[in-house]
Automatic annotation (TrEMBL):
GO MF term set: copper ion binding; cytochrome-c oxidase activity; heme binding; oxidoreductase activity
Protein name: Cytochrome c oxidase subunit 2
Pfam families, A to Z: COX2, COX2_TM, Cytochrom_C
Primary gene name: coxB
Lineage, opening ranks: Bacteria, Pseudomonadati, Acidobacteriota, Terriglobia, Terriglobales
Span of domain Cytochrome oxidase subunit II copper A binding: 132-249
Enzyme Commission no: 7.1.1.9
GO CC, alphabetical: plasma membrane
Entry's localization field: Cell membrane; Membrane
Role: Subunits I and II form the functional core of the enzyme complex. Electrons originating in cytochrome c are transferred via heme a and Cu(A) to the binuclear center formed by heme a3 and Cu(B).
Family membership noted in the UniProt record: Belongs to the cytochrome c oxidase subunit 2 family.
Keywords of this entry: Copper, Electron transport, Heme, Iron, Membrane, Metal-binding, Respiratory chain, Signal, Translocase, Transmembrane, Transmembrane helix, Transport
Species in which this protein is naturally found: Alloacidobacterium dinghuense
Cofactor(s) for this UniProt protein: Cu cation
Length: 349
């Protein structure tokens, strides 16, 4: 029994030290976008605040673990049963005022310190002033995709959020107003900001000021239905020139290509136009994503697959192939209609 107890203590200690080492390694990530999102590679002021708070909490909790684990290991080893020991109960000692005060006052102080530190960080983020150069974006969570509206620019984007690069000399933060069209969602891009819920009939807000250009990965962090795990999102931090070019393209109406006029006619005569919008056409649906600049995006179905012509055709034919439980129905189109609609949508850049 003693041997098993010692092995258990050592196993637990080894597991926690491995976790601690993993987290410390995460803290050494290079700045900028990462293939795997991590709070230990912050690229925005809110994420940086969370990062330093996490290190502070990790230090305190790590010290508690080392202290408790060390005392436990010492007691197990020091007071183990020896061969010459009898089986009588050792002397019982009660009523140590010093010990009672120590294990009451110290935990209370630790909790108070953690509470005050966390509260300071939360209010520092929430009460940050909004500069005149800030970009406003309204985020709407749907089952199971993201809608991004830029009210001052007249842009409606989907699943891939574009924001300008910010710097200390000329801060250009992005302020996000978070809404939900159906159930509770949660907006989370670990390297840019903390999790914030999107609630029906309620408005929440967060802001980011990305300091490094590139693409940052996030997703819905609140279970919202069958395809919650594939409700991914991408945030593209563009340089000023890149962002200006993206805005100019997104403000244009859909490309009108006569070579795919048949495909456009099929799109407009099917139920597709009841759910989707394509600026400059009769399609003004609001239940599904805006397709005006569909092929300017890197992914389809909220990051479920790469945005290629082949994947697009298969997605239209049978959405459950890539995203089982998606609310987009299979349209039961024949092969000719599928080819025609795919050819038309492939021109929307």
């Amino acid at each position: 029994m003693l041997e098993k107890s010692v092995q258990y203590v050592l196993f637990r200690a080894k597991s926690w030290w491995l976790l601690f080492a993993f987290l410390i390694c995460g803290a050494a990530f290079a700045e900028g976008p990462q293939a795997t999102p991590s709070i230990f590679a912050p690229s925005s002021t809110p994420a940086d605040e969370i990062y330093h708070l996490s290190l502070f909490v990790l230090t305190i909790t790590g010290a508690i673990f080392v202290t408790v684990g060390g005392l436990l290991a010492f007691v197990v080893f020091r007071f183990r049963q020896r061969g010459e020991d009898d089986t009588t109960e050792p002397a019982q000692i009660y009523g140590s005022t010093q010990v009672e005060l120590a294990w009451t006052v110290i935990p209370v102080l630790i909790v108070v310190v953690l509470f005050l530190t966390t509260a300071r960080m939360i209010f520092a983020i929430q009460d940050a002033p909004k500069p005149k150069a800030a970009l406003d974006v309204t985020v709407v969570g749907h089952q199971f995709w993201w809608e991004f509206n830029y009210p001052n620019l007249g842009i409606h984007a989907v699943n891939e959020l574009h924001v300008p690069l910010s710097n200390q000399q000329s801060p250009t933060p992005t302020f996000l107003k978070l809404l939900s069209a159906d159930v509770i969602h949660s907006f989370w891009v670990p390297q840019l900001a903390g999790k914030t819920d999107l609630l029906p009939n309620n408005v929440n807000e967060l802001w980011v000021d990305p300091l490094h250009p590139g693409m940052y990965v996030g997703q819905c962090a609140q279970f919202c239905g069958v395809q919650h795990a594939k409700m991914l999102l991408r945030v593209y931090v563009d340089t000023p020139d890149q962002f200006a070019a993206w805005v100019k393209n997104q403000q244009q109406p859909a490309v009108a290509d006569d070579s795919v006029a048949v495909g456009r006619h099929v799109f407009e005569t099917q139920a597709c136009m009841n759910c989707h919008t394509i600026k400059g056409t009769a399609a003004t649906g609001r239940f599904g994503p805006d397709l005006t600049h569909l092929m300017s995006r890197d992914t389809l179905a909220s990051g479920a697959m790469a945005n290629t012509k082949e994947n697009l055709r298969e997605w239209i034919r049978h959405p459950d192939t890539f995203k089982e439980g998606a609310l987009m129905p299979a349209m039961q189109l024949n092969d000719q209609q599928l080819d025609q609609i795919t050819a038309y949508l492939a021109t929307l850049r």
